[in-house]
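Two quick folds needed for the group meeting slides. Do the first one here.
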Amino acid sequence: MKNGPQRKINSNCFSLGQLDHLREELLSSGKVIVNEKFLPWNQSELKLIEERTSPKNIVYSRTEYGDTGERNPVSYFRLLHPEIQETFLPECLKLIRNKETKAFFLSLTGLSDFTIDRCKVHLYQKGDFIALHNDNESCPEYLYTVILLLSEDYIGGELIVKKDSCYYSLKPEMFSMIVINSFLSHEVKEIFAGLRRAFVFFLRKVEPYNS
């Protein structure tokens, strides 16, 4: 019997400290791009997320404003949200909730614990964008915003992160992940052609248990 594809998280990525420089960059600058080779999901799992969230397979809704009132003309599909009573696309949620993924984010961020909150997919078409906003304003317990890019054939759509008085433009390749401190303001520039799709969720602070 042939063994299935092994998760990259089970390679030497932790033992060799290959996430150390990414953690240092995240802690110092508040943002980091994690290339596919460092992610806790193998290529088959990434393709599963990409395929399950394709507009060919799910129906996207439309919004004009975000949680903090910012202009936000994009299409979206919610997988995990306080108002959702059932779990949508459980195979995708399982990948971000398993122990390997949690170990990855603990190592990357240096957190002692966290919980996954609000998972959704954004679909940007020509003319779509998200105005400058701060995720921590919608939920003060958000620690990090996680964005997994599921497409690359588009023009525009740069993620702009503001820190102090500086603006940083990020546009990594497909299946790269951007992690930013949820305290930092950020925006997605207008799409001029093509489709931009991103899988988004938040690392939320876990309240201490009081007996």
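Then this one, please, same format:
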Amino acid sequence: MRESVTMMEKLTKKYNLDVDVYLSREGAVVLKYYKLLKEVKTNFGKVSVEKGPNAPFLSGRLQLGMYKLFLIAPATANTVAKMTHGIADSLITNSAAQAMKADVSVYIFPVDQKECEVITKLPDGRDLKLRTRKEDVENVEKLRRMQGIKVLSGLDEFEAVVKELQL
């Protein structure tokens, strides 16, 4: 989570981007838990939290061409699984589906891209060892094959996207 916030802040300043942040309900909870929600609200002009699959009406804004792209970062295993199986029942999954239908590029950075164990930091600074499940990695591979989706292997790849699109 920290890496995603840092990347967005860096690119916003470096390329003078207007970034609107749309958070799932759970995303807002996690940002608050990691003490990042206030930072996000301070550094980005528009921050909206999901009230339902179509509220706020992000999919409408995507369909009307108000955004050049849709970035999902980080994407949980749950979001990836839903997208690979055509489930669009949350703000993020519904907006991604609608963006693809309107030919708006969807970039996604899934957290579970290879089977391994990773050490992550808890909000109190302690380490937590997590194991990536085979099923989650298989869903990311399915996502890579979907039309209209570009899976990012690392957040650093997103800067190349920004440069390419000259946002």
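Slide caption for protein two: The first strand starts at residue 20 and ends at 23.
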